[in-house]
């Protein structure tokens, strides 16, 4: 149930176009099985997406949308 909720939240909040309406199987193939590497440098984390991956721009836009969300308040 948690995975289904997370995919639904991702689609409504972060994705646009065809991926916002795609079935979970299509999302797994296009986004979750991406050829990428997480690297660190300059005190930051980077996601290096392979240039040949056809949905790299969609994934990069989703990460940018995620970074633009307001941070929760800490008390």
TrEMBL record:
It holds the Pfam family DDE_Tnp_1_4. It comes from Kribbella orskensis. The lineage of its organism: Bacteria, Bacillati, Actinomycetota, Actinomycetes, Propionibacteriales. Residues 2-70 form the Transposase DDE domain. This is DDE family transposase.
